[in-house]
Specification:
Shape: globular
Oligomer: single chain
Order of helices and strands: HHHEHEHEHHEHEH
Number of helices: 9
Structural class: alpha/beta
Strand order of the largest sheet: 2-1-3-4-5
Distance between the termini: 79 Å
Length: about 250
């Protein structure tokens, strides 16, 4: 009887193994199919040309994800200025990434109307595993409210959360829109660029696409509230698109 009971248990255990193996194998098989699908979809992309204008560390992320058959998870963080204009720079950049990368890049947009301190206090969910983060760090919103050094700490806090979820993620910084007659704000933007260089963060100086802050024609790119209008949004987007698509 003891022998029969042991044999019966062995048969039950053997019968359960194939099912368990099938369940365990299913996620791996699905992942392999997803990798194959991404690889097929993006096979004809000339990634070297598309990423030619990027900083080397940002380019490396794109190349690695394509080689691994994975999509680049791309996050745009910034003030509500990204939505100003018809369309705003965030929409223009998102469309350019989708048309250029044929499914290799998945873009998410996270806009916030407030300072960098208020953004962090709002508890944004940055744990989704973003690979590349384009951040306009609320510098204009911070003007007169958040010190330059504190803004830089906030940037590092945001990127630290990104890195905790994706260890090889890269951060790309860019300033808000220029405004006519900028004074201390100009100092803030200069400090942001110097901070990016010091920390080895990629930086896009889109201000070169706009008239000087001392040029009256800059007002043709802005609304009465100094937000980007259609022309301003296009100028801003042109610099970002050139960086991320090489065109």
């Amino acid at each position: 009887m003891i022998f029969s009971y042991a044999s019966w248990k062995d048969k039950l255990a053997s019968a359960g193994k194939p099912a368990e193996q099938a369940i365990a194998a299913a996620p791996a098989e699905e992942t392999e199919k997803e990798v194959e699908a991404v690889s097929e979809e993006t096979a004809d992309i000339d990634l070297e040309s598309l990423t030619a204008s990027m900083d080397p560390q940002v380019q490396e992320v794109f190349l690695n994800r394509k080689e691994q058959g994975e999509k680049v998870q791309f996050l745009i963080i910034g003030s509500d200025a990204m939505n100003d204009g018809e369309p705003g720079y965030a929409s223009l950049l998102t469309d350019a990434l989708e048309s250029s990368y044929a499914g290799l890049v998945e873009t998410e947009v996270m806009s916030f109307d407030g300072t960098s301190e208020e953004f962090l206090m709002s508890g944004p969910d940055l744990s989704s595993g973003y690979d590349v983060v384009l951040m306009e760090p609320f510098t204009l919103k911070n003007n007169g409210r958040v010190e330059i050094e504190t803004e830089h700490v906030h940037i590092q806090n945001v990127f630290g959360e990104i890195l905790s979820a994706e260890s090889d993620a890269e951060l790309v910084l860019h300033p808000p829109q220029p405004i006519y007659g900028a004074q201390f704000y100009q100092t803030q933007v200069n400090a942001l660029e110097q901070f990016a260089e010091m920390r080895d963060y990629a930086y896009i100086n889109h201000w070169v696409e706009w008239p000087s802050t001392e040029d009256l024609t800059l007002k043709d790119y802005l609304t009465e509230d100094s937000n980007p209008n259609n022309r301003g949004a296009a100028a801003w987007a042109d610099a970002l698109i050139a960086y991320f698509t090489g065109s």
